[in-house]
Amino acid sequence: MNAPARLAHSRQRSVSSLYVTPPRRWRTPTDDDVGWWPITFSDLVLLLLCFFVLWHVAETKRQTTTAAQAQSSPPSQLPEQAPLAGQQEPLPSPEAITSEPGEQPPSPLEPPALFPPPPQTSIHSPAEQTAWQELQAQLDHYVQEHGLADAVGIVSTERGLIISLSDTITFPSGQATLSPAVTPLLRRVASLASERPELDIEIAGHTDDRPIATAEFPSNWELSAARASRVARALLDQERLDPSRISTRGYAYYRPLYANDTDEHRAANRRVEIRFFRRFQAPAAHGDE
């Protein structure tokens, strides 16, 4: 082989040797590389378990201490707990809302009456209270004289005089047609209202909880309001009263005297109340003449 050929052959071998890749050596995983995470996870679980154990011990100790204090303290000295955030205070019972001040709700074991007993306290002057009692005495005398004690109840309170009329003498069941038996009593009530023009009159109709759905009265709301309106119209027909003195209300069965659990209690709840009261006069502002 001549010199140029040997030189070309040596150059070719040098270039080919540059592209030769050495064999790779793969590294096999060891136990240290794949076993570290169970140890870390077990440490985390152990820490959580210790936390819950300590929390349970502290909570049990707190409950035991609270129970011991409650047993050792008298009921009258127990501290009142404030409502939690977002927690509403307990609502008053219906008896506490509908009862007059100082008035006890009737017991369900007692026989039903036409009206609860009057409160013992009064916010008015003795002279005004005496005037209400005199008006009550006149109506009581009329009721006793005409034998209406079982159907008419009269109560004088610190806010006026209330005449409670049972439905036995006012309206047939489920109707708003005034019975002729109550006309003489309404004539007497209208006469007393005419003699006392300073008094206003409010008439309220009440029903029991039995549902009613007729073409004339779709519900007890319409029936109670219609009965109150009929009584108001009857008073205006008896005497020339100022209509601005008279107002009517219909309460349906939402203001009962007793729970609607027996026929006797339902009969006591079906009533029309006529209330005499003095219109509130706002005090004159300073500087007015």
Which secondary structure elements does this structure contain, and how are they paired or packed?
Blueprint: H1 3-17, H2 31-34, H3 36-72, H4 94-98, H5 126-145, E1 152-157, E2 160-166, H6 167-170, H7 183-195, E3 199-206, H8 220-238, E4 246-250, H9 263-269, E5 271-278
Parallel strand pairs: 3-4
Antiparallel strand pairs: 1-2, 2-5, 3-5
Helix pairs in contact: 5-7, 7-8
Compact description:
This protein has 289 residues and is an alpha+beta fold. The protein has helices spanning 3-17, 31-34, 36-72, 94-98, 126-145, 167-170, 183-195, 220-238, 263-269, and strands at 152-157, 160-166, 199-206, 246-250, 271-278.
Q: Can you walk me through this structure?
A:
With 289 residues, the protein is α+β, with helices and mostly antiparallel strands. The protein is built from nine helices and five strands. The chain has helices at 3-17, 31-34, 36-72, 94-98, 126-145, 167-170, 183-195, 220-238, 263-269; strands at 152-157, 160-166, 199-206, 246-250, 271-278. It has a five-stranded mixed sheet. Helix 8 links the parallel strand 3 and strand 4. Helix 7 (183-195) packs across helix 8. The longest helix is centred in the first third of the chain and has 37 residues, at 36-72. The protein is elongated, with a radius of gyration of 45 Å. Residues 75-80, 84-88, 94-100, 107-111 and 117-123 have low confidence and may be disordered.
